[in-house]
Amino acid sequence: MNIGGTDSSFLDHLEALRRALWRSVAAIAVFLIPGVFAAMPALEWLVRYSCPAEIKLNYFTPMEPLLVQLKLGLILAVIAAMPVILYQLAGFVAPGLYEHERRACRRVIWAALGLFLAGASLGLFLVTPLMMRFSAQFASEALSPVIGIGGFVNLVGLLTLSFGIMFQLPVVMVFLVRFGVVELATLRRSRPIAVTIIFILAAILTPPDIVSQLLLGVPTWLLFEIALLIAGRGEKRKSSGKRSEEGAEEEEACPETSDEEEMHEPEPYAGRPEENTMDAVYRDSYRKKRRKNRHFGVISGHYRGKRGAKK
Hints:
This protein is mainly alpha-helical. The protein has helices at 2-50, 64-80, 82-93, 99-136, 149-166, 169-178, 184-189, 191-205, 210-253, 259-263, 277-292, 302-310, and strands at 57-58, 147-148.
């Protein structure tokens, strides 16, 4: 019965995943036709914004403009359908999470989306015009730029996607530290290695020029340092929360007494010897230690042990 229940649960998850995927594909299909019609005006605006006036785009095969239009229309459709895709993803994951995990998941999704848009905007509106102006400087009487429309769209897509992906580094780091996959101290010790890997990835994901590599590597390095600060603050809050929970559990296990109860001890019963100097010292030491450790519920048995031995 248990095996059958497990299979049924697995099939239910597959069915929920299938519905989420089909709805996401349907949303992209709805926005695809408007995206195709908006592709050429968007491309003309991008050329006017990014390229110098002397650069004109060319196409080298009869079907290249149509293929570029379809590709750009698909990209615009995916961007327009992104809220629906994220909503379907959240709806698929949310039933298996607790309430605090759902809140954390929402924060992670919004942070990842914001960082992706920030990185993509940096690559599209800053790095792409710099790249095209840098390329136009090589033009001379012997050299004239002949840039294909397909190569230009591929360059813009590569820069936009590379910057958007690299800007996800803080979300990944905070997630790994929060769930205990990587220690924060390990990341801090590995800072030189991490910076080296960042610049290697920047060199791989960008065109082979130092300008775009630095424009991708330096902001990602700064985001790495910011992620370390955020993860450090999260570790402090987590450790303080654990200490407060431990203190509350110890106080429940050993409830504290009031000062009046400590000061007013019961009268000695008949036949008990009078308190001598050492008993007074033990009593005062016991009271001081009790006041000092009251918050954590730690009670020293020093005084009680000595009085028990005297009996």
